[in-house]
Prior knowledge:
44% of the residues lie in helices and 0% in strands. The chain is built from 2 helices and no strands. The protein is elongated and about 75 Å long. The chain crosses the membrane at residues 23-41.
Amino acid sequence: MTFTEGKTVNTGKSFFARKWKRYSFYSLIGFAVWHYIYYTIEFNENVRKPEERRDMAYIHWLKKQFPTLRQYGIPYRESSVNKK
Length: 84
């Protein structure tokens, strides 16, 4: 690579290429904290009655698509989708 006087060449990586690992890690931590808080509230009997507990919408969808996952978390109920 030859350099001419007065011109500079940007040889650095793009912003995303430099920081994707950091932002992926932050996203993963945020996602985990979000779930922890949500399910802490759902399982707190002072806040929610056991019959009113619901999984997050995408967790409910996963349980509907993959019946083997129904054994985990809040018991799967078809009617819990309509409740809000």
